[in-house]
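Contributing new records

If you add data, match the layout below exactly. Sequence lines come first and carry their own label; structure lines follow with theirs. Keep one chain per record. Anything else will be rejected by the validation script.
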Amino acid sequence: MRQTTLARITNGMLSLLLVLSLCLGSGLADADEQARFGEVVKDMKERADKEAQNKAALEQLARAPLTEAQQKLLQSLLKSGGMVEAGLSTAPYLAYLKEQVGKDYPDFPAYVAAMPTPKRKTAVLFAFKDAFPPETSAKELQIFVGYYFKVRQLIAEKGFAVLDTDEHGELRRHHLAKPYSEFMQKELKGIAFLVFLKKMMQAAMIPDNLAAMHTKVYQRAWQERLEKHGASEGLLRCAIATPTEFALMRSFFEDTTAFEKWILESAEGAAAEENAESQ
């Protein structure tokens, strides 16, 4: 039975924790220490359950039908004709974009080039604040946010299968493990081993999980819109329904054609993987 990318990451980290508990159990100082290690495992399982709930909510948001106002905008863009990104650079869409993101952009390519914008980084930071314990510092969260966007770009360029490769491991070492280890050594000297272990496990699992989940959810929702409405109208609907995510993922591709191809081909691969898991 094959597992989805999210399940592989989560289950892999939980398995590692269980192995460590067996290896270290006899060396822990007392029953209290062993109990605290059990709390680490329990905490990671609870967070995996929470991620599943968040995924369901995100799927509902990504697939939400266009509102009446959004439908009127769509009709306006369709009447303008031309290429997709030309339509997204017209006054009606740019006015809508300003309403959504709170900033003027001269055209759609300028918005794409600005990705990830400070506002998008802040939104991800708040997602991490919800996913990590309250005591997680702002410096830690900034490290996770930077790494998160690196993972999303890697998935866009290489597909979800890259998360099982040495290339992803190298990215993690350079953009997560190295800066986070330096932070731990400088800022958290003398912390208890199990506290250190818990922090490292969370850092190793949560950013990858969220990056993979966010990418997959939006990709599948976009695929459905393109298959139902055709490429041009489908892409316009995606840009209206989820403007920030659409621009972020578009920023990882040379042009709209490559972006469209990724949506359809990679989403089909993800769907096949999930179908295989359910059999």
